[in-house]
Write a structure and sequence with these properties.
Elements: E1 16-20, H1 28-51, H2 55-78, E2 82-87, E3 92-97, E4 103-108, E5 114-120, E6 124-132, E7 135-139, H3 145-165
Antiparallel strand pairs: 1-2, 2-3, 3-4, 5-6, 6-7
């Protein structure tokens, strides 16, 4: 080797890390119980209407159950989305993972990055985004108001702490 330093690059320790996930109030066991209860009610009513000769009404009870299951399936699929935020003194890294597993990565210099928060006087934070280097990356679009407030205060404090060090 002719004068080339072959030492591996060491990643600086993150000052701030967060993983944002959508909140779902109904867990898997609650979903199963709801589905079983709904199936029992729909099945009972469908049989009742079928015995009285009202076939179209019985079919609609089956359709109701299928649509309810489909809506919950899509809801749980959307819950697989997540965002990983990691901030070190030299890099702010945002990984956005879609429900389908597609990964989008954004990197910013934390010294030049700005955290934009839009607030509504009644609803609190309506949107959050990291802005810098001619780009804008929205954060936590799926979070509730309290979760947005908590994340915004922690992220703002970490970004300010890094900017004070430089």
């Amino acid at each position: 080797m002719s004068g080339v330093n072959a030492e591996p690059l060491i990643e600086p320790t993150p000052v701030f890390t967060a993983e944002l996930r959508p909140h779902r109030s109904l867990g898997r066991s609650g979903f199963r119980i709801l589905l079983l209860f709904t199936f029992a009610v729909c099945f009972f009513n469908a049989v009742l209407f079928l015995t009285t000769g009202a076939l179209p009404v019985a079919l609609f009870f089956g359709l109701d159950f299928v649509l309810l299951y489909g809506a919950f399936h899509l809801n749980y699929r959307a819950a697989r989305a997540r965002e990983h935020i990691s901030m070190s003194p030299i890099e702010l890294r945002i990984l956005k993972i879609s429900p389908a597993g597609k990964v989008r990565e954004s990197r910013y210099n934390p010294f030049w990055a700005r955290f934009d928060v839009d607030r509504h006087h009644e609803f609190g934070i309506t949107s959050m985004a990291v802005v810098g280097q001619g780009r804008r990356t929205p954060l936590g679009t799926f979070l509730g108001a309290e979760e947005k407030e908590s994340f915004a205060s922690a992220f703002t404090a970490a970004l300010a702490r890094i900017k004070r060090r430089i």
